[in-house]
Structure formats: C-alpha cells, structure tokens
Amino acid sequence: MRVQFTETVLRDANQSLMATRLPYSDYEAILPTMDKAGYYSVECWGGATFDSCLRYLGEDPWERLRNIRKNMPNTKLQMLLRGQNLLGYKHYHDDVVEKFVELSIKNGIDILRIFDALNDFRNLGTALDATKKYANENTVASGCISYTQSPVHTVSKYVEMCKELQRMGFDTICLKDMAGTMSPYEAEHLIKGIKDAVGDMPLILHTHCTTGMAYQTVTKAIESGIDVIDTATSCFSNGTSQPATETMYYALSQYGIETGLDEKVINEVNDFFKPVKQKYVDSGLINPKSMATDAQALVYKVPGGMLSNMIANLTDMDAMDKFDEALAEIPAVRKDLGYPPLVTPLSQMVGSQAVTNVLMGERYKVISKDVQNYFKGEYGTAPAPVNADLQKRVLSDAGMSAPVDCRVEDSKRTGEDFENAKKDLGDLARSEEDIMSYICFPKQAKDYLQARKEKEERTCNYTMEVIE
What we know:
21 helices; 8 strands
C-alpha cells in the first residue's frame, strides 16, 4: 500500500496560521533540502499567496514562483486555483483565465488544484481546458470539491460530483475539507463511495486540525483508500493548519505503508522552520487562537484561513471583544446564502458580512457589494435556496427582476482586459505577468510595480554617483 504526501508549509499552513504573511526570504534557504524529501507535491502558490505578496510583502508573486521552481527542480509544485475567480474575488473573463493558467504553467506550476466555492462546475471548465491546452509532461489537473455539511450536502451528492469531475477530464480529485469538520465516520463512507464510483482515479484529502478531528479523519481516510494526504511540517501544523507531516509519516511507517518520504530530510525541514515560526509567535503575527483546537468550528464551519484573517481584521479594528459574537453569526449568514461551503471567496464574504452585522448592531443594515453580487447570481448557483427577502431587496435595489441564471463569463474573450491593463500601466508593465497581476489586483499590483520602478531608479542614481 502507498500513500503520498503534499507538503503545505509554503502555502496553506502559513495562510491558516499567520494569514499568508510568510515572505520568500524566510524559506529560500531550505528549498533545495525540501526538493529531496520525496513529497508527492509541495503546495507553494495560489490561494491567498498572490494577493499577500503584492499587498503586504512587497514581492512579485511570479518571481516567487520562478525562484521556488529554480530551487526545487525535482518536486511537483502545486497551486490552488479558484476556477473562474482565479486568485481574486470575482469572476474573470475566459481569455483572462486561460492566459493565467498558461503563465502559471510557464512559470513553474505542475499541479493545478481547481475548485469553485459553490461547487458549480461550470466555473471549472475554462481553467481545465486551459490546463490541458498548455500541459507539459508534468502537468496535473486536479478537480477539487469544497466539502461542507448542510441539509443539502450528502454522500450521494458528493459521489455524483466526483463522477462529474471524472467525466470532465480531471486527472485527480481532491476533497477539500477547509474547516476540518469531516469526521472519521464521514470520511470512511464518503471515500469508499467515491472509490467505488471513480475506480482507480487518484483521490486526495485536504483537511485542517481546527476541530481536533483531522488525525482520526486522515487515518480513517487512509484505511478507506485515499491516495494522497495534505500535511504540514510539524512546527507549522495543527491548530487551524494541517496534520503534521512527520507524525503521519511515523504512524504510516509502523503499518508498513510506503510514503516515499525521506525521514532525515523531513526532520531537517522542520528544524529549519522552528525558529521561523517562533519569530512570528514572538511578534504576535501568529495569534494563539490560530494554534488552538476549537470544537465549536463543527458548528461554525469556519476554515483556518478565514479564522486567522477574521482575527487579524478584528484586531486591526480593535474589536476582538466582538469575536465570539461574530463567530456565532456566521452560521446564520451562511444559511441566508443557501449553505455555501466556507471557502475563498465565499468564506471572506460570509465572514465579513457576519462581522458587519455584529458591528452595526443590526443584521444586513449594510450588505456588502460581494454579497449583493452573490444574491444576483454572479458567483453561480447556490447549493440551497437563499433568503428570499434578502434576495428580493438586493434585486430590487439593482433594478433586476430575477438573478442571473448562467455562468456570468460564458464565452467572453474580448481582449479588453489586457488592452485596458496595458494602457493603465504604461511603462510600469514589462511582461505579461505584470499585466496579469494588475488584472487580478489592480491597486495592489500598480502600487508594487510603481515601488519597483522607484527602487530601481534610486539604485541607478546611486550607482551613477559612485562612478562619478
């Protein structure tokens, strides 16, 4: 029996524990060692890393990816892609999605884990087609299901979803349990059902330790036939992150289950990251709440990244005294929105609306633009009926008689996004990657590119003064 590992420390582990504030310089030195570990893949890009690089870290996300690729030539590099949302918080035109996938593969990504927050698979098609179009010998298109529990999310529904992903042409399937609410019982019945339905198609489990169940759930998943598990080097594991890589390796080794991992190397990786983590614990960037187990997440269904961001935002607003109240508001907002899985961008939308409801002292006194667009149907089809009164109010304010009933970006390949971006950026843009960054995050990308230009001009002027 063989079970392989995806290491998440470069993306979801630090996203969950410290809101994706881990700069490239903090881990560059360990990458050649990680390249020898024997991982199935290293998740290092996508998710919130792109936004965080530009917004907080002053980094070019494309350059980060190229540098990781250079230092890890023998390991599959993996990203999380939000289907038609790419890495942003809205749907992009089809030609933008295709170009983004092309550039991702060109700059070093091997595995594209593609999901839609609502499991509306119409929003996966363009990214999947582009992945196949620009694939090389290492490219893997992984169809991802956002796992959650609700009255409408059943084992049979998930099995049908997996069969649909197989029919669409994905190479692997990932179950993304972003809130860590999948129980061992659910894992057993779900994975056995899926395996019966899709045969030998590789199945991957991604979960979090938020609720304290992850180790039991992953173990039961392995017994039930899972092929790949997501884990984090142990000092960046647990809490709102993933189970520990070394712990799961040790447990599986005793069962004689082959993993392909080098024990000496994975221990070296953890030794490297210990002082890195401690630095952020000491600075307060890693909040103790993110490292704790909270069984209440079984009720709230809050994923790790959402929790760490919520903590960071409330701290910035000096409103942490409202944390428990905002957390309790999340299930009510989720019900109003038709039980969407709490995964980006829906997790941020639901969490922000819950916080707004609490801070305003009145539910939906202010409805965010994103939630309004959700009620208009612009994110796809909700899993269950939404709050009819709220939707009616939003549609009325927008002058609409009914929500949109199709994938918003169907067949939009006008090139307008690229032309506008080139015009707006002028000489700040030096590559297709710069233009793509601007399309995804206009303000953050332009600020970064302007700062890059100014830094280079200062350096050039200094060099000229020294020469003179």
